Amino acid sequence: MPETVDNPFFARLWTVMSAHETEAIRRLRRQNLAGLSGRVLEVGAGTGTNFEFYPDTVTEVVAVEPERRLAEIAQHAAAAAPVPVTVSTDTVEQYLASGSELFDAVVCSLVLCSVEDPDRVLRELHSLLKPGGELRYLEHIASRGWRARVQKFADKTFWPRLLGNCHTHRHTEKSIIGAGFAVSQARREWTMPAWLPLPVAEFAIGRAVK
């Protein structure tokens, strides 16, 4: 189990990227959180980009962000959030191992690509949800054709090292179903032109129920 996350290069890079997200990605974040209520666990909060989009029907957000530099920025975002947000610097694996009260929902935004064992993490997230609780996800996913080859090359070479262990060619929705969730709503969207040879231009957004 990882004990700390110390990635100053990625922290600096993500701080800049998250401060300049496109309106397409901000729209997807807003849609991913719409209609949530009760107690929410957010995994991999980054700089707290989601916080401003939580509806006021949410009573509490526990946000896990293990990179201390990002967590510090997230704590400032939490102070301005429209709902109560607590930022934890545990890794998701540490938080899951510590035990917790059950949640009404879990939010994963651009994070399942970076955990070491997404199948195990998703099974444990499933166990933290109340019956009928939701997983809301907004994630990079494995593409097909020539873009899949680009993703596989990036994953085996420079991409995880530069982008905080991000792996772009993961079949995340299959892992979600394999963890015991029932996907109730899902779609894929392009946030950049489909012709650009980038491994992270296509996103999956969806809701899955325990």
UniProtKB/TrEMBL annotation:
InterPro entries: SAM-dependent_MTases_sf, Thiol_S-MT
Gene Ontology BP, a term: methylation
Matches recorded under SUPFAM superfamilies: S-adenosyl-L-methionine-dependent methyltransferases
Coiled-coil residue windows: none
Annotated GO MF terms: methyltransferase activity
UniProt entry keywords in alphabetical sequence: Methyltransferase, Transferase
Pfam families per the UniProt record, alphabetical: Methyltransf_23
UniProt xrefs under PANTHER family: METHYLTRANSFERASE LIKE 7A (PTHR45036:SF1), METHYLTRANSFERASE LIKE 7B (PTHR45036)
Name of the protein: Methyltransferase type 11
